[in-house]
């Protein structure tokens, strides 16, 4: 499927960054403003490192298997039906949550940019994006991989433009001090923002086609590093200008202070970041239904694209609520299961494509870290509704 495609490692890095950088990018400044810059930076560094280790462990699990599945297939292979259903729930909940969040925010950004010129409702713009992205998902991985390189390049340029617009307005007095009471507040949003496990099996296809599987860890760590630096830069720029006025989606707060000129740069970042994530996550969900559930391609596509549209039209959830609970719960349970797969895969007679060894004590500590985050996010979300 990918034979003859040049620059495979670059494409893999672009796809992984494109998967991770999405709606979470716009939620991070808000939680930085609420928890304090120091706590936000610590969360980015620690969670980024944990995610990089977890993705590397998952990549080793994936390369040990003869068959290529999605997350569900590997859960069934290592846990049987008991673990399979937990994997089904966490994975599908997470993927749909991401698609919903992207549709909500991209619809809003398109509305901010184009409504003054051509009119139209915010919902109409959201539906338009959903339709265009859904069409691209039906085309497949090769087209998306090529598109991701352009999208990531455009994303980095857009962040540069945003920096030029905001740096003159930066003020250190706007940067909030740390609040120990909020030490875990950024956890769910940041974990969501780094989430990219769904694309690891597809990256195996991409790298294996060019015999580059030994580069898997390098691809993961480079991608996570670039993603983390992008998040830090964006959060510091937004909070440094907006301060306590930082909005849930970052751009609205900047618009109040800098005017409409900031909307185009911010919208470009959001549409590129979240649009790319919508594509690769939608592809992963389609592959899950097609390869793990053995459904026809048509049914797989419909199951992938329609639920997000229905929830979006119903207007049941807000942007940050989706990010926080989906990131912590889905990312947390997936993290626990991935490390358990990794531990059990050590008995697999098939050799891994690369060396990556962790003692069982380290595995349990990582699992505990994920579970603590799940409990905190659930309690925090329940408290908001009580």
From TrEMBL:
The chain crosses the membrane at residues 12-33, 39-62, 83-104, 124-144, 151-172, 184-207, 219-242, 262-285, 297-316, 363-382. It is found in: Cell inner membrane. Its main location: membrane. It comes from the Bacteria. Keywords: Cell inner membrane, Cell membrane, Membrane, Transmembrane, Transmembrane helix, Transport. GO terms for biological process: amino acid transmembrane transport. InterPro entries: Amino_acid_transport_2 (IPR018227). GO terms for cellular component: plasma membrane. It is a multi-pass membrane protein. PANTHER family: OS07G0662800 PROTEIN, TRYPTOPHAN OR TYROSINE TRANSPORTER PROTEIN. This is Aromatic amino acid permease. It comes from Candidatus Kerfeldbacteria bacterium CG15_BIG_FIL_POST_REV_8_21_14_020_45_12.
